[in-house]
Design goal:
Elements: E1 5-6, H1 9-16, E2 25-32, E3 36-42, E4 45-50, E5 59-64, E6 70-74, E7 88-93, E8 96-102, H2 105-119
Parallel strand pairs: 1-2
Antiparallel strand pairs: 2-3, 2-8, 3-4, 4-5, 6-7, 7-8
Length: about 120
């Protein structure tokens, strides 16, 4: 087993606190922009910290891969024809779409790839 990739140790610790037996953390990436604090990916699920609740409340939402209908790159337009130029992804889960914006294209690409591997 390899060590998880992470941006901030406190975010990694939050995900570690909720790990189930047999579950392993792949990565925990800090998110930018309003709402999402971080996005974690494990071998079983996606973990999203959502800071957008009224009264400064924060939710840690777990999304099993089997509940994700699609994963998308978000981009204003194609940058010189390169599809993977985006640093944002969207997850379609039933009636909800979760968006996550990352610092750097490589993180969005990694998250997209891991999720796609689990849902296809």
């Amino acid at each position: 087993m390899t060590d998880p990739i992470f941006d901030k140790s406190e975010q990694l610790k939050q995900v570690q606190q909720g790990i189930l037996p047999g579950e392993s953390i792949i990565a925990v990436y800090d998110c930018i922009g309003a709402g999402t604090g971080f996005l974690g990916i494990t071998n079983l699920r996606v973990v999203i910290q959502d800071k957008s609740f009224v009264g400064k409340r924060t939710a840690i939402t777990s999304i099993p891969y089997k509940n994700i209908r699609s994963v998308s790159f978000l981009s204003n337009k194609s940058w010189a024809g390169q599809f993977f130029s985006s640093s944002s992804i969207a997850l379609d889960v039933a009636d909800t779409t979760y968006e996550a914006d990352f610092r750097g294209m490589d993180k969005a690409h990694h998250v997209h790839t891991v999720i796609l591997e689990h849902i296809t």
